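My current task is to audit a protein record that another person submitted. I need someone to confirm that the token line plausibly describes how this chain folds. Take the sequence as given and treat only the tokens as open to question. This is what I was given:
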Amino acid sequence: MGLVFIWQASTDADYRVIFSAVAKGLFTTLYVAFIAYVFSTIAGLMVGLMRVSRWRILRETASLYTEIIRGVPMLVILYYIAFVGAPAMVEAVNWICRPLINLGITEGLSIRSLNFVWRAILALTIGYSAFIAEIFRAGIESVDQGQMEAAKAVGMSRWQAMWTVILPQAVRNVLPPLCNDFVAMIKDSALVSALGVQDITQLGKVYSASTFKFFETYNVVAFLYLVMTITLSLIVRGLEQHLKKSKQ
């Protein structure tokens, strides 16, 4: 498909025009996916640590969170956060800061709205944090229990052992699935077009609706996603091979 598209793009003026129109959304697609992935990785690590906590209330809370989020379609999460969660969050922040805002001390803290790009990022962060939390949980549990006992034997606390002994080994074990989640994030970022965010998919929808060139336009959209995901998949495969060799 890639070779066919490249040949058509180089010989067909329509494809060149479509490509230039749709490719403008490439930065937005990568920006949304990257920022959401960074935030979801941080949140997922925190939830993953809660999943292996000694305190039952933390374990049960994290388990409930992951089960609920993983059981709801990403598009539903996107709509819920964009039209329910984000407005409620804006109102909550303004309510908390109202005394200072009324005094004129921190007028800049007043938030009128949250743009749809950040609503999309927030939704993807929440959606993916549950999956990444399970990856971290599995990675932590894959480390031999004797590592924790040995760390405690030399005087480390549980959290010191977790951060300095267990987590470095766990992260090494979960790097490939974490990278695969970024590939999935790239693909799921297409859902933000439902909010009108000007990513590749949205620009493709707008262009095809105005020109009725649906076949050509979505060929371009599919090609751009394939280039990104295949490139990342090859990087992940190389990383996996490197990790296998280093373990031998």
In short: The domain at 2-247 is CATH 1.10.3720.10 (MetI-like fold). Residues 35 and 84 are 21 Å apart (CA to CA). The radius of gyration is 22 Å.
